Amino acid sequence: MSETLNLFLHLADLQKKFADMHRARYNAIQQVQDNWGSTVNKEADIPIPLNKKDMSMELFGIGWLPYYLVWQDGQLRKFAAYPAAQN
To answer: What does the domain layout of the chain look like in residue ranges?
Structure first.
């Protein structure tokens, strides 16, 4: 009987710890949401006028993916001209 009582008390203690941890988790989540919620509400737009003299181009490139169009079985199909690069 004593062993059963000890197991019951241990289970009750674990359930209380679980409830406390669950409550602490909920409070932590609420605190984070409140903090970020107030931070988001402080958002403001800052206009930045752009002039052509303020812009510079560091890199320019053109991408081209060559392919072949082939009629096959009465359908127009597209095939890559080069195999795909493998890492």
So the answer is: 1-42
Q: What does the block give as tokens for 62?
A: 């053109």
Gap between the Cα atoms of 66 and 83, Å rounded: 11
CB 35 within 8 A of CB 50: no
Q: Are strands 75-80 and 67-72 parallel, antiparallel or unpaired?
A: antiparallel
With CA atoms as reference, report the closest residue to 80 among 56, 64, 62, 61: 64
- What average pLDDT is seen over the chain? 86
pTM exceeds 0.85: no
- 9 dihedral zone (left: phi>0; alpha: psi -120 to 50; beta): alpha
